[in-house]
């Protein structure tokens, strides 16, 4: 048992470190360390442009999309090399957060389902950061129950073979600056919900696409609604067969959960620092036994996630496939962050209500409090994640699905009884 | 990076698990729960013969000379089956005290016997109600004679020797090795929530006490040994947590209600998922703890407290929810759920209670190791 690199890993790490040291935009480092939920932290220049510049530099040196094959602009590196890259890139990774969905989810889906011609056309500019992709899946009436989506795609009546799209998507990160979108639609409402779906990719500049920012509960706007009014998509931009959209979407969602050893933040180091400084009756808060009990429970969650990630990395290092342990990451981190932020406000006493220049650590805990409800919902809600652990890890039976064999158009849309 | 046990250590696990599946069934545990014996002698002897008691004891003192990683593997397996044997008192504590602070003669005399299961050791430091602290120790040693009462002492009713914390003539807390078969010792088995691990009151009235380690270094030595034992016990707790989860999962697959297996209801599924989460966090923290123990890392005190807090929390969480998943059947004497519930709550207060370890973890982190948890 040790935390050491193998000689090959150490050599790779040295190579990565040297390259990053020589090439990273060091003038942005301080801003990046203050990255928050809404942005990569860059304020002194255009954050998107800064992200694109860093990605381009990486791509030119062969450090872009390490998990992709070379012919599509990737680095064709092993999973452990990818982990080492991530550790060394550190705060600079926040710069290229704008590409996370494209590189991690849309790209792999295109790779699995698009024609060779499309792959060669679309993937290299995505890898090098020239294009940004977004994922158009969730809808106002279908979140966890994604297959209940209602955005319609119908064949154009002009015989062109094109598809005409009408409907609405929601919670689309980055739609406002995306070039391409991965879009799942309903093409047949007369069959059960999973069977009538079809996947497309579309040019976000197409006529009839309208992006509107959502004003979130915390006052920020990092997500969008996307409206489609008679948007035309050529049939050549269909991924998979007509009616095969659910299967295609699973490729995307599987990739969403593949990020390994990424170590989601819980906010614990910040809370600990705060408790070293804050006072209770003239003594540091960290000396109070009640505070200690709370802190200890947060500490073991933070540390448990960290070492769970390291166990996964250990498996990768040996060329093994990591176990299912990493599926606990977001479930633990999201709930911990929320509880922890409430505790930090509690320690601030009556002044915990304030979210201004007086608030400790630039109001970090107030921001966490107001953002953490979303962490527990986005990318699989706590409840969906518990179902996944229950069913895929523990082998429990799935829930009974009453709409499984019902044509989509006959599924009830309201829980209220009709008058 | 390799935060995992080696193939040899995994083979050892298989070997111990096979042995325990034949020699430590639910009936074995229940015989101690319901019968007059304080531990299973045959099982203990079998473990000695298998070499696992001496796993971390050097060969020159009759051990196998492996290390603490191997002993952690063994501990997890013992925890899974609730083995009713005094391994923690005799091996995690007494043998560790001897290895850390014993004189050559003390080591030569006792370690081979502990490794062979021929003698049992116990650690006697608590003196009645309340969290343990230096100020609470009233037992005294004067002219090599020990006076005072220790309670509860885990496995104190069956131990041959005890490591006793007492004040010397200058009022400094020191450790003493006491042969419990000698004069001036009386003992009494105490009733507890978990009779599968016995508890006793030891009363000393002029018992012969031999200094263990330097005068006045009692608390210093004890805290180091308690850290080691905490990691080992945390592995027992992780074993118990995992097994509680497995039992609950199996029952949820088998038990039908409202025409379907109860495990298909999200109310049950989510309880089980949360049990998996706490057991997984605890396991990862235990790997951190045993890495630090085995490598002698400077952050070991933080790692030990981390493993201990996480494992105590997980075992209590899993054992209580195992009963909940079973419904009424989980509250019957016939089902094993209460055996795990008893053990989880007994281990939670052994070696210092959860809140004590929580406090120590944060104290240690604030003393300069904060970055280790970042």
UniProtKB/TrEMBL annotation, chain A:
The keyword Oxidoreductase appears for this protein: yes
Keywords: FAD, Flavoprotein, Oxidoreductase
Required co-factors: FAD
MF-aspect GO terms: flavin adenine dinucleotide binding; oxidoreductase activity, acting on the CH-CH group of donors
Domain annotation Acyl-CoA oxidase/dehydrogenase middle: ranges: 134-231
One of the record's GO cellular component terms: plasma membrane
Stored InterPro entries: Acyl-CoA_Oxase/DH_mid-dom, Acyl-CoA_Oxase/DH_mid-dom_sf, AcylCo_DH-like_C, AcylCo_DH/oxidase_C, AcylCoA_DH/ox_N, AcylCoA_DH/ox_N_sf, AcylCoA_DH/oxidase_NM_dom_sf, Mycobact_Acyl-CoA_DH
Domain (Acyl-CoA dehydrogenase/oxidase C-terminal) ranges: 243-394
Pfam families: Acyl-CoA_dh_1, Acyl-CoA_dh_M, Acyl-CoA_dh_N
CDD domains for this protein: ACAD_fadE6_17_26
Keyword Lipid metabolism recorded: no
SUPFAM superfamilies attached to this UniProt entry: Acyl-CoA dehydrogenase C-terminal domain-like, Acyl-CoA dehydrogenase NM domain-like
Domain Acyl-CoA dehydrogenase/oxidase N-terminal as annotated: residue spans: 6-130
Homology family: Belongs to the acyl-CoA dehydrogenase family.
UniProt name for this protein: Acyl-CoA dehydrogenase family protein
UniProt source species: Hyphomonas polymorpha PS728
């Amino acid at each position: 048992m040790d935390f050491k690199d193998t000689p090959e890993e150490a050599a790779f790490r040295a190579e990565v470190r040297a390259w990053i040291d020589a090439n990273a935009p060091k003038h942005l480092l301080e801003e990046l360390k203050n990255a928050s939920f809404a942005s990569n932290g860059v304020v002194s220049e255009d954050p998107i442009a800064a992200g694109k510049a860093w990605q381009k530099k990486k791509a030119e040196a062969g450090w872009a999309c390490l998990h992709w094959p070379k012919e599509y602009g990737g680095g064709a590196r092993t999973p452990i090399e990818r982990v080492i890259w991530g550790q060394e890139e550190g705060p600079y990774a926040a710069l290229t957060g704008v590409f996370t969905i494209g590189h991690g989810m849309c790209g792999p889906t295109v790779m699995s389902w698009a024609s060779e011609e499309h792959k060669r056309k679309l993937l290299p500019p995505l890898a090098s950061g020239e294009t940004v992709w977004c994922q158009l899946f969730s809808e106002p009436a279908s979140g966890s129950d994604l297959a209940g989506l209602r955005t319609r795609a119908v064949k154009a009546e002009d015989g062109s073979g094109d598809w005409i799209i009408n409907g609405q998507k929601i919670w689309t990160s980055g739609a406002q600056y995306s070039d391409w979108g991965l879009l799942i639609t309903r093409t047949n409402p007369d069959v059960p919900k999973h069977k009538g779906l079809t996947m497309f990719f579309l040019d976000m500049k197409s006529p009839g696409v309208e992006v509107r920012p959502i004003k979130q509960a915390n006052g920020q706007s990092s997500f969008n609604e996307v409206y489609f009014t008679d948007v035309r998509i050529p049939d050549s931009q269909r991924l998979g067969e007509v009616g095969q959209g659910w299967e295609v979407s699973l490729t995307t969602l599987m990739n969403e959960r593949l990020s390994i050893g990424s170590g989601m933040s819980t906010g614990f180091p910040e809370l600990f620092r705060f408790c070293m400084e804050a006072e209770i009756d003239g003594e540091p808060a960290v000396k109070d036994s009640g505070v200690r009990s709370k802190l200890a429970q947060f500490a073991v969650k933070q540390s448990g996630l960290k070492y769970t990630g390291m166990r996964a990395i250990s498996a990768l290092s040996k060329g093994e496939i990591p176990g299912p342990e990493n599926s606990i990451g977001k479930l633990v981190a999201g709930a911990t962050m929320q509880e922890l932020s409430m505790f930090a406000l509690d320690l601030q006493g009556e002044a915990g209500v304030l979210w201004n220049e007086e608030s400790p650590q630039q109001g970090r805990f107030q921001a966490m409090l107001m953002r953490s409800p979303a962490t527990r919902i986005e990318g699989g809600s706590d409840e969906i994640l518990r179902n996944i652990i229950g069913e895929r890890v523990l082998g429990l039976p799935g829930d009974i699905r009453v709409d499984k064999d019902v044509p989509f158009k006959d599924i009830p849309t309201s829980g209220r009884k009709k008058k | 990076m390799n935060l995992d046990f080696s193939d040899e250590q995994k083979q050892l696990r298989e070997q111990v698990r096979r042995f325990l599946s034949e020699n430590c069934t639910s009936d074995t545990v229940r015989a101690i729960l319901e019968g007059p014996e304080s531990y299973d002698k045959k099982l203990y002897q079998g473990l000695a013969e298998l070499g696992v008691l001496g796993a971390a004891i050097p060969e020159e003192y009759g051990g196998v000379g492996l290390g603490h990683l191997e002993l952690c593997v063994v501990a997890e397996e013992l925890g899974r089956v609730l083995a009713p044997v005094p391994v923690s008192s005799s091996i995690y504590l007494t043998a560790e005290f001897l290895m850390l602070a014993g004189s050559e003669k003390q080591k030569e005399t006792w370690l081979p016997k502990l490794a062979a299961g021929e003698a049992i050791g116990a650690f006697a430091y608590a003196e009645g109600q309340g969290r343990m602290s230096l100020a609470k120790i009233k037992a005294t040693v004067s002219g090599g004679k020990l006076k005072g009462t220790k309670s509860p002492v885990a496995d104190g009713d069956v131990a041959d020797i005890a490591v006793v914390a007492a004040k010397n003539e200058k009022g400094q807390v020191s450790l003493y090795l006491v042969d419990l078969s000698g004069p001036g010792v009386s003992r009494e088995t105490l009733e507890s929530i978990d009779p599968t691990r016995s508890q006793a009151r030891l009363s000393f009235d002029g018992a012969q006490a031999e200094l263990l380690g330097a005068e006045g270094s009692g608390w210093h030595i004890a805290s180091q040994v308690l850290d080691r034992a905490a990691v080992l016990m945390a592995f027992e707790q992780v074993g118990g947590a995992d097994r509680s989860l497995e039992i609950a999962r199996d029952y949820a697959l088998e038990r039908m209600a409202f025409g379907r297996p109860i495990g298909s209801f999200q109310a049950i599924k989510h309880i089980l998922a949360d049990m998996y989460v706490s057991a997984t966090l605890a396991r990862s923290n235990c790997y951190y703890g045993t890495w630090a123990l085995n490598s002698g890392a400077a952050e070991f005190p933080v790692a030990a407290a981390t493993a201990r807090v996480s494992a105590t929390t997980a075992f209590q969480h899993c054992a209580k929810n195992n009963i909940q998943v079973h419904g009424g059947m989980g509250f019957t004497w016939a089902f094993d759920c209460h055996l795990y519930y008893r053990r989880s709550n007994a281990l939670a207060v052994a070696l210092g209670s959860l809140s004590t370890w929580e406090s120590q973890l944060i104290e240690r982190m604030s003393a300069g190791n904060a970055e280790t948890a970042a």
